[in-house]
Specification:
The chain is of the alpha+beta class. The protein is built from nine helices and 21 strands. The protein has helices spanning 31-44, 64-72, 105-113, 123-132, 155-171, 181-190, 204-212, 237-241, 247-259; strands spanning 4-7, 12-19, 24-25, 46-47, 51-54, 59-62, 77-83, 91-94, 96-100, 118-121, 135-140, 145-149, 175-179, 195-198, 222-225, 228-231, 235-236, 263-266, 270-272, 275-277, 280-284. A six-stranded mixed sheet has the order 1-2-7-5-6-3. A six-stranded antiparallel sheet has the order 10-12-11-14-9-13, with helices on both faces. Helix 1 packs across helix 2. The radius of gyration is 21 Å and the shape is elongated. The two termini are 25 Å apart.
């Protein structure tokens, strides 16, 4: 298959149009967010940024909602940036849940009624227990940390528990933000979050297995950290919806279009469309 290839310092970014049926979702999406994106795509008439996929399996790593929105509006093709998922510069992390509410005891009390076994520990001990699989999740306030015992569940089952706790917290009136582990701990220390929920770690093998089995993780499970990404490809939606255009022809049109456009290399920390990117960005002008 022919690609438009961008060579970053540590990773090749291979842009192409592929059959939308060939991709695999490893994480659930939020229907309201998918509908909002679908409306935005139809309004703008272009897909601004490619979906990032594992080159080997076509499992979506970043852009789950964009992929679902393209399917919703009847696209038969999807622009992707394929990467070597086994490259060590591509990392998979998880999202901590940071909850805000003045009194957190009601959530702790509700968990006790679930007959969940917990053990008090330090944050570091709980983190080690998550990594070894002896804990399913951790819950911490500024005063104490509780490990939730893993009753033999795999990582997917433990994430379902995390999702259930999150839903229960929302029903009790908690606000929730999704944070990196370090940011969640910082918010807890500063008092901008009163309770954090830490999920188990996820491996690349878990991600591939979940996608290929069509057995997705709950939404906001994984956070893929890329050393670089392409932005601003602006592929017309009408091409992606057109069943009369062959895949090979559509891909050729994309590559020819990208070759004609200036490509700007931006260093990590760049602000683009009100979002700050921690990774290197290759922006089509």
């Amino acid at each position: 298959m022919e690609y438009f290839t961008i060579k970053s310092d540590t990773l090749d970014l291979k842009i192409a149009v592929i059959d939308i049926k060939s991709i695999h979702m490893h994480e659930e999406t939020i229907p309201e967010a998918v509908q909002e994106l679908a409306t935005e795509l139809l309004r703008d008439g272009v897909l601004k940024h490619p979906v990032i996929v594992d080159e080997k399996t076509k499992v979506v790593l970043d852009g789950m909602h964009r992929a679902a929105a393209l399917k919703l509006i009847g696209c038969v093709m999807i622009p992707v940036c394929s990467v070597d998922y086994e490259n060590p510069s591509v990392r998979v992390d998880t999202w901590y849940r940071a909850f805000s509410k003045k009194n957190t005891q009601d959530l702790i009390n509700e968990l006790m009624r679930w007959n969940i076994r917990t053990m008090e520990s330090s944050i570091q001990e709980a983190k080690r227990s998550l990594e070894t699989g002896t804990a399913a999740a951790l819950i911490a306030t500024k005063e104490k940390c509780l490990m939730i015992e893993n009753k033999g569940g795999d990582v997917k089952q433990n994430f379902q528990l995390v999702a259930s706790i999150e839903q229960m917290a929302k029903s009790l009136g908690y606000g929730v933000n999704y944070e990196t582990r370090s940011d969640a701990l910082k918010k807890l220390e500063e008092g901008t979050a009163q309770l954090i929920l830490g999920p188990p770690p996820v491996t690349k093998q878990d991600v591939r297995r979940s996608g290929l089995r069509d057995d997705p993780f709950p939404h906001k499970a994984t956070r893929h950290v890329m050393p670089a990404r392409p932005l601003g490809i602006n592929v017309p939606i009408e091409i992606l919806q057109n069943r009369a255009i062959g895949l090979s022809e559509a891909n050729k049109k994309l590559i020819e279009m990208l070759k004609k456009r200036p490509l700007e290399r931006l260093e990590p920390g760049s602000l683009i469309e009100n979002r700050r990117y921690e990774e290197q960005v290759f922006l089509f002008k």
